[in-house]
Specification:
This protein is α/β, with parallel strands linked by helices and about 150 residues long. About 25% of the residues lie in helices and about 25% in strands. The protein is globular, with a radius of gyration of 15 Å.
Length: about 150
């Protein structure tokens, strides 16, 4: 029996062109994660076939996933965000300031971001990962980050 990798190796952090709004929010979320002491990676493929827009590893080993929504239409046509919970301790939606925040579920975190940074408007309640899954995800995250680094 072959093991399914926890994170898929993708040497480039972005697989193709990103709409400008999505790129700006993603950049701001990554900067916010760094400001919070987290190490972010963008476009991380998960074992269930989903792709986390931003996945970050915190200083105490916590794993955060942020799903970027560039518009109301983007949010309404994409309901896969519930599939991220098994792979993170905290989950956030990340949106631009113009996004209608009231449509987002209140039981997940909320970040507002732009090119220059972001702010957590609503914290995500922690849902700790099982120790074995955390260890496997942390090792896979580190390997992915190392392979993405230019030689």
């Amino acid at each position: 029996m072959s093991a399914t990798p926890l994170l898929t190796l993708s040497l480039s952090p972005v697989d193709g062109p990103r709409p400008e709004t999505t790129r700006r929010i993603t950049r701001g979320v990554a900067r916010l994660m760094v400001d919070l002491g987290h190490a972010p990676l963008v476009e991380v493929a998960l074992p269930n076939g989903r792709r986390a827009d931003v996945m970050a590893l915190g200083p105490r080993g916590e794993i955060v996933i942020c799903e970027v929504k560039s518009s109301l239409e983007d949010y309404r046509c994409d309901r896969k965000w519930g599939d991220y919970a098994p792979f993170c301790d905290r989950f956030y939606f990340a949106v631009a300031t113009s996004f209608p925040q009231t449509v987002l579920p209140e039981d997940v975190g909320l970040i507002v971001a732009d090119d220059f940074g972001g702010a957590i408007l609503r914290d995500s309640g922690p849902q700790p990962l099982a120790p074995a899954r955390r260890k496997a995800l942390t090792i896979a995250f580190a390997r992915l980050a190392a392979f993405r680094r230019p030689v």
